[in-house]
Amino acid sequence: MTSLWLDGRPDTPASAPQLDAQHVDVAVVGAGITGLCTALLLARAGKSVLVLEARQVGAGTTGNTTGKLSLLQGTKLSRVSAKHGERLVGDYVTGNTEGRDWLIRYCAEHGVPVQREDAYTYAQSPSGIEDARAEFDACRTAGLPVEWVHDADVPFPFHGGVRLPDQAQLDPVPLLDSFVAELEHRGGSVAQGARVRSVSIGSPLRLTVDAADRSASRTVTAEHCVLATGIPILDRGGFFAKVSPHRSYCVALKVPGDITRAMYLSSDSPTRSIRYAPTPDGERLIVGGGGHTVGRADHAADAVSELVHWAKQHYPGAVQTHNWSAQDYSPIDELPYAGPILPGTRHVWVATGFDKWGLTNGIAAALALSGQILGGHMSWARAFAAWSPHELSGLTTALQHNLEVGYQMAKGWVAPLARHGDPAEGQGLVTGPPWNLRADSVVDGVHRTVSPVCPHLGGIVNWNDADCAWECPLHGSRFAPDGTLLEGPATRGLTPADTHVSHHARGGSARP
């Protein structure tokens, strides 16, 4: 599953990173929009900066986003308002506005294509009108120039919604490429295929880094470390318990005739996110939705099938060209985190909890983090505080979330006792008693067996049949069929066992 944006990009780094005896002012872990923008801002200020990326630039959430750059974010503002009131809603909007405007200026100055379009939060049915109205009220209170519209020129059900004019959308990959080019021009560097395994606190910090080719570990020293990895790879601060990981899906389609121009996001379920995207081969319609907590979907592939069915139902003649998925993290108190990993520390920094709005929140977090590292302060950054009394509003959510994590832990170790048999093509299965668990999968005719125990905190992985990947239902770590780590907070993969050609696919064709 390759996104429309990443299609045609190499899956592996061209060569192993050169990291011998490196010392920098700031080491940034993660080469998505937050990490690269933070690195660029610090390099502009004269800092020596190294970005360490375990896979490739944009391989995580940024390269799999829908690419919407909007202050109207579904029902986000009404949810923030319900927990925190007008002041923090105002700070959140101000931070997102600064992030959006900074990014639009950057794109204009560096020739990165952006399409300016209106954004809508809309009700698909009468049951969604109340939530859409609540978002309209929250937007008005925050000073956004929204209007309520009863109709829209769209082929899908529309029962009224909020319209915010002149927002933006883009392809994130040219943006990341531009960030890398400017960063390197200013003396910074990006090491792809460099996975950070640990960070030792001291003066300076010591980062242990493994190369993708599994050669010997290297050490990078730095005065500051920024963890821009979606969820922090370090357990200090317990951020894995303060965010909930979610997987959602997108399909791109060729659509005959007129294509929907504005950006739409439903206020009711099932979620529908719609935008168009220009490509060298003509415009595409992008439809997103089908979200679930990572590792807890029985048949994730059904979500992709549902999106395609919905698109073809409302856009007759539509032909699917791509489908992909992305991982996002929802904070317990609705507000993102951008600040020190522990209260009072000023050397290790985190950014997470963007709740599917990383293009604006990621830039805002980069502005906040670089400002703090350089000794500055932005008043709106209190809405992005990594540690703040406003988190008390999320205690009930955190309790529910972590009770569910405990349940998933127990279930994962016991449920495989009742499972038997071999997986079919494109499927995976965990079987065996707790003392001898095994995870078997068959993908493209290759049968692989790995340990199902997540190396983060010992959860038992489940199979995602949409992505053909193992997922931990505790905190969202994800692994390829052969156990290779795809996303943290784990910092190493599943222990592999035997690999052989499966009898399921002898003489057959590869998975589509």
TrEMBL record:
Q: Could you list this entry's UniProt keywords, alphabetically sorted.
A: 2Fe-2S, Iron, Iron-sulfur, Metal-binding
Q: Outline the extent of the Rieske domain.
A: 444-501
The domain of life for this entry's organism is Bacteria
User: Which SUPFAM superfamilies does the record associate with it?
Assistant: FAD/NAD(P)-binding domain, ISP domain
* Gene3D superfamilies per record: D-Amino Acid Oxidase, subunit A, domain 2 (3.30.9.10), FAD/NAD(P)-binding domain (3.50.50.60), Rieske [2Fe-2S] iron-sulphur domain (2.102.10.10)
Can you list the GO cellular component terms from the UniProt entry?
cytoplasm
Spell out the protein name for this chain: FAD-dependent oxidoreductase
InterPro entries membership: FAD-dep_OxRdtase, FAD/NAD-bd_sf, Rieske_2Fe-2S, Rieske_2Fe-2S_sf
What GO MF annotations does this protein's record show?
2 iron, 2 sulfur cluster binding; metal ion binding; monooxygenase activity; oxidoreductase activity, acting on paired donors, with incorporation or reduction of molecular oxygen
Q: Locate the region Disordered.
A: 486-512
**Source organism:** Mycolicibacterium diernhoferi
